[in-house]
What we know:
Helix content is 30%, strand content 20%. It has 809 residues and is α+β, with helices and mostly antiparallel strands. It folds into four domains: 1-25 and 547-656 and 785-809, Four Helix Bundle (Hemerythrin (Met), subunit A) (Up-down Bundle), CATH 1.20.120; 33-131 and 175-193 and 461-545, Immunoglobulin-like (Sandwich), CATH 2.60.40; 204-459, 3-Layer(aba) Sandwich (Rossmann fold); 662-779, Severin (3-Layer(aba) Sandwich). The strands form seven sheets. Strands 12, 13, 14, 15, 16, 17, 18, 19 and 20 form a nine-stranded mixed β-sheet that branches. Strands 5, 7, 11, 21, 23, 24, 26 and 27 form an eight-stranded mixed β-sheet that branches. A four-stranded antiparallel β-sheet has the order 4-6-25-22, with helices on one face. Strand 14 (257-261) and strand 15 (268-272) form a beta hairpin. The protein is globular, with a radius of gyration of 27 Å. The protein starts with 5 loop residues before the first strand and ends with a helix. Zinc ion binds at residues 137, 139-140, 142, 157, 159-160, 162. It is found in: Cytoplasmic vesicle, COPII-coated vesicle membrane; Endoplasmic reticulum membrane.
Amino acid sequence: MTTAALESFAPWDPRTYQQGSGASQQLQQHSQMPSEVKVREEDTNRSGLFETGFPYANLPPLVSTFTFAQDSGNCNSKFMRSTLYKVPKTDAIMKETQLPFAVVITPFAELNIYEVCQQEIKEPPVLDFGPQEPIRCHRCRAYLCPFMEIGERSFRCGFCDTFNQFETADFTDFKNRPDLRLGVFDLVATNEYCKHGRAPKEPAFLIMIDVSNNSFSIGMLPLLCHNLEKILRNLPREADQIESSIRVGLATFDKAVHFYDISSASPKMLVVCKQQYLLTIPKYTFSADFQEPFVPMVDGLLLPYSEALPGLRAALAEIPKIFSQSRTTETILQPVVQAGLDALKCADRAGKLIVFSTVLPTYDAPGKLKAKNDRSLLGTDKEKRALVPQEDSYTKLGEQCVKSGVTVDLFLFPNGFIDVATIGQLSAVTGGSIFKFQNFSAQKDGIRMLYELQRHVSKKIAFDCIARVRTSTGIRPITFTGSFHMENSTDLEFATIDENKAFLTEIEHDDTLKDSAALIQTAVLYTSMTGQRRLRILNMCLPVTSDYHQVYRLADPEALTAFMLKQAVQLYRDKGSAEMKKSLSSRCAQILATYREKCSEGAPPSQLILPESLKLMPLYVNSILKNDAISGGSEMTVDDKVWQMELIRGMRTEDVMPFIYPRVMPISDLQMNEKEELKELPKLVRASADFLDKTKAYLIDNGVVLFVWVGAACPRTWVQDVFGVGATNQIDTESGLIPEKDNAHSRALRRVIQLLPRGIRQRKKIVVFEKSKLEPRMKTCLVEDGSGAAKSYVDYLVEIHRKIRNLVS
Ligand SMILES: [Zn+2]
């Protein structure tokens, strides 16, 4: 056994620590603990080219390290990232280590500009074998891939060991087929893989906007109408396309739904209810009986952007005028989604409903919801009651949407309760996203909202997807987490999957692994943005071992953190807070105790010994335990809490990491003179108040919120340069805006914000100065610190150490 990979500390004794003397000793102890910032810094020596490996997948660099992967037969870790890069041979080893074997799958992940898969394009190649059906193992149905052993006229399936005869006669150049060399590729699907045996139509996005009184008064409606035309210019297209194939449509709603025929420059409005009215704008009337919404079937409803443009422009100009005097304060939501779904169904297109809603749907119609205030239940043992849907009709409607390949995205602008737990099911089930702008003000939040929308509608996306994960004999996927619908135990139905959406599967042994390799293949049948039915195939091959040390050495701490976070949310939903916390901490201790027992027997028991690969695990687990999504109490709203839980559902590993351990960087020392260029982020510091210097200002970023924290003794010149005021207490912290000033400090700060990796959301910026009333919110990002019931990193490590000692003795 090697000890090179062991990280050891000075002996820890919980009692001496608790009696610990001064602050300086505490800081010293703190500095000695494994540092996430240091680990990330050290990993940058793996930046640059990363070969994915063959036959076995290489352990990928950390998500923060800039790499460009070269596909050598295993897929890029952006597509599939495993918690283990050496898989235990037997279930007994798995159980003993308690390490989860899970894979985070982002089937349509965006690649960077240096990652060419083939033919110098950023996307995996699309292979078209004409009418020939994809070659698959006749027994386990795995697709031909680099892990099939190719013979003269047959191949041995790497997954189930079965011999298969090739049915095709043409073997020339067979060995050069890309599907025998690449970890990821697309196959054009034959008609057998299409719904009803025929090719699908181009997908569509239907924009559905709330036009009630509230929507106008908060400024959302005029702002959106003014900018939507420009935003929709960015619909996603494939590399060789000039215009997107995606159709667009427009609808508005209050107590009724209004569709727009945008086929001409004088658009017509159709008000949908029991009877049909065909009106020419700006005349407007409605009748509101939603028991039987009719199916809006018009030719001019869903059109390619260029054809829709004159009508779209005219309608968007008229809508704010028509509804500016609206007195309607109550709205509907479920009939809106139902009508949108019916419209897409009638047009026989998969796609998205992008719904903008400002109030709780309280109007007397199906899906009517009650206002309630359960905030006081948060953080108590009754909180589960507050987090579940009021009724299941939204979930059922979501399931209907999935069946027709329709995703629901919600852009919410509430001033009060809007019941994300209930209406959010529409997105949760259909692979959609929820964007929430609480107390929206067009002036403060308008630009952020428009950027968010533009980014959202321009993402690469796959429609009407069915995913299946296959593994080699001896292991199988047992649970799945993400935004999908399942009707059997193997097929995951997603109405859409975009480039930022991940799902996760946990794999278990049902036997001893016979071969030296564990294979995983994810196949996603989908409709492309151009309306072509395709299969995306992702492959991964991991070596198998009986050596505990190898298992720990090649564990991936980040995929493991993503797994732990998603599992924590699931446990929290199912079993409540106390049970979840207990379960997560025990698992963390058990993982480390087994390491202690199997890999470092010689060390004295008082010493805490952590595997090099997992030395940050206690830090990450502690941070998960105190994350707002799980731990937040009555200082947050029920909607906020559910929104955060939903955000985690489809999170990629790349987004999980800053969310769990935010980036903290000093920025007040930075200057950027006129002709200079800043290319890198400043050096990060640990996420703890111990490491913040009050003479500086910092950026603190978790990918959702970006804080600018200004220390009490931060130089006045910096405050003046950046905010144009003489003292920190004069900074306009309300607006969250960072003014554009023509000086070196201001330029540097704005440049650093530009350099931040894309967050999971368009970040809300909050300016906080030391000891101001917003500071406690920022402090939740300082995850190494404790407060109230939330333990500090030091205290948690002491607790885990105690648990490990109990387990080992
Ligand atoms: Zn097979």
